[in-house]
From TrEMBL:
Residues 20-67 form the Lipopolysaccharide assembly protein A domain. Residues 68-87 are annotated as: Disordered. The keyword Transmembrane helix applies. One of its GO terms (cellular component) is plasma membrane. It holds the Pfam family LapA_dom. This is LapA family protein.
Length: 87
């Protein structure tokens, strides 16, 4: 519940910031050029991209920890020759 409230407060603050900075401006990046794009659109897209990437990284880390705690064998780059049979 605490995360939900913090997330909502953060989303509201981002929305207020974006609405107060709603001037069009030009963006050039490598081969792309956007002559007139809203600051609000850039701000919101950047925040969403960061949230999505953060969620993906957190999900991968959680899976890795679950596999370690469950004793699941993770694949290695050594292949089958790295398996040692003592018999």
């Amino acid at each position: 519940m605490k995360r939900l409230i913090l997330g909502l407060v953060f989303a509201i603050l981002v929305a207020i910031f974006a609405l107060q900075n709603n001037r069009p401006f030009a963006i050039r990046f490598l081969f792309w050029q956007f002559p007139r794009i809203s600051e609000a659109l850039v701000i919101i897209a950047s925040v969403l991209l960061g949230v999505i990437l953060g969620a993906i990284l957190a999900w991968r880390e959680r899976l890795r920890r679950q596999n370690q705690s469950a004793g699941t064998v993770t694949p290695t780059s050594h292949g089958p020759e790295s398996i040692h049979d003592p018999h």
